[in-house]
Q: What sequence folds into this?
């Protein structure tokens, strides 16, 4: 990849001159994992932060992480325009989302819901006169042909095209990127796009089927006593980025003049066996791995950080060992609280395995009805 050319082509936007000047900010999907961390950080920096989401945050009362919570179904452009009104900065993190156990088996639901959200959000932001828009894209946009080798999986930004993402989830994100790029070119709106690579950390989904591998592995390490369940041979490789680094990267990018999609992830790649060993080491466990069939995703994926370093002079800083320990301790505290509340809980039966979330066909026109 011609990195200098990509950087030069992207450095054409207007930066935020003084990020410390208070703004009115919307975090769409802000009750979710990454959105709530972002909202809390922006609130702490003195901005007025409106969160719009279809559900409230699971762990916080609104006043703990935002100035105002609005319940809204963001698949509908009218709802989006309303929540964007009066807002200077828009961060769009809303999506129908989950780990491999969800995205691999729910293509139709994801394609419908997330496409509606992305389109409605950017158009609603335009109609409301917002000047700056951030779109949360994903490493899932990359062409699967470039992710077959678990040992050599560095993804530079140009490798998303020609397009062949593995799942509908990644295709929707790639389409969303193009929509943002077009709106940024055609209208008076600065758009910024980050491709997140496996974000994990405290307050992330950790059970129920939508959780991703870092949380699922922490849960299994805590709950298992004989073997450690793993989908596939465990040689699939990934990098994982702690949510605090993700938030830092979103803001640095948002304030910058860089308009093209950029990787936001760690370049510390591990395979799933190594990740399992790491989480088991936190409490001295060394269980035998039990490899079972399950959705594995691509074979290898790592964030190539050449562009982000050139553009922002920064890349994610938190080591996998430090970040995973924080996530592990938080999940352990959740499980301990459940045990205390119930008096007695068989956590091995409940939490030592993962499940695939089957796609449920909506009743009649339930999709459309929910978008009203
Ligand atoms: N977590 C990751 O590793 C990761 C990786 C790549 C990209 N992303 C992207 O980052 C963003 C945030 O991800 P997250 O991990 O915080 O997920 P999340 O599921 O915790 O947050 C998404 C939020 O969107 C909300 N939402 C869904 N449908 C909605 C609707 N119709 N109207 C309003 N709100 C709706 C959900 O309620 C949820 O609170 C998403 O766009 C996701 O695709 C995340």
A:
């Amino acid at each position: 990849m011609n990195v200098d050319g990509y950087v030069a082509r992207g450095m054409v936007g207007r930066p935020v001159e003084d990020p410390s000047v208070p703004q009115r900010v919307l975090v769409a999907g802000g009750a979710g994992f990454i959105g709530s961390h972002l909202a809390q950080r922006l609130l702490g920096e003195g901005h007025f932060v409106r969160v719009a989401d279809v559900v409230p945050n699971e762990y916080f009362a609104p006043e703990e992480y935002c100035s105002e919570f609005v319940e809204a179904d963001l698949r509908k452009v009218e709802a989006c325009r309303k929540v964007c009104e009066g807002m200077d900065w828009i961060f769009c993190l809303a999506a129908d989302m989950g780990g491999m156990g969800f995205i691999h088996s729910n293509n139709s639901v994801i394609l419908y819901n997330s496409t509606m959200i992305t389109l409605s959000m950017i158009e609603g932001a335009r109609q409301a006169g917002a000047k700056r828009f951030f779109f949360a894209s994903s490493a899932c946009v990359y062409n699967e042909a470039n992710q077959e080798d678990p040992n050599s999986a560095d993804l530079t930004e140009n490798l998303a095209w020609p397009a062949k993402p593995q799942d509908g989830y990644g295709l929707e994100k790639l389409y969303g990127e193009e929509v943002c790029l077009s709106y940024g070119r055609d209208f008076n709106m600065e758009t910024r796009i980050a491709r997140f690579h496996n974000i994990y950390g405290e307050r992330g989904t950790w059970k129920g089927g939508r959780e991703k591998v870092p949380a699922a592995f922490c849960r299994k390490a805590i709950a298992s006593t004989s073997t450690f369940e793993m989908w596939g041979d465990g040689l699939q490789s990934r990098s994982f980025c702690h949510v605090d680094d993700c938030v830092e990267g979103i803001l640095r990018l948002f304030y910058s003049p860089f308009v093209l999609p950029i990787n936001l992830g760690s370049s510390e790649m591990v395979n799933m066996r190594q990740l399992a060993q790491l989480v088991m080491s936190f409490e001295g466990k060394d269980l035998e791995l039990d490899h079972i069939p399950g959705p594995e995703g691509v074979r290898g994926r790592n964030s190539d950080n050449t562009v982000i370093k050139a553009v922002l002079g920064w890349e994610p800083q938190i080591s996998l060992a430090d970040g995973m320990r924080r996530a592990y301790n938080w999940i352990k505290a959740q499980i301990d609280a459940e045990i205390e509340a119930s008096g007695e809980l068989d956590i091995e039966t409940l939490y030592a395995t993962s499940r695939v979330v089957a796609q449920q066909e909506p009743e009649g026109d339930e999709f459309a009805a929910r978008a009203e």
Q: What stands out?
A: The two ends are 45 Å apart (CA to CA).
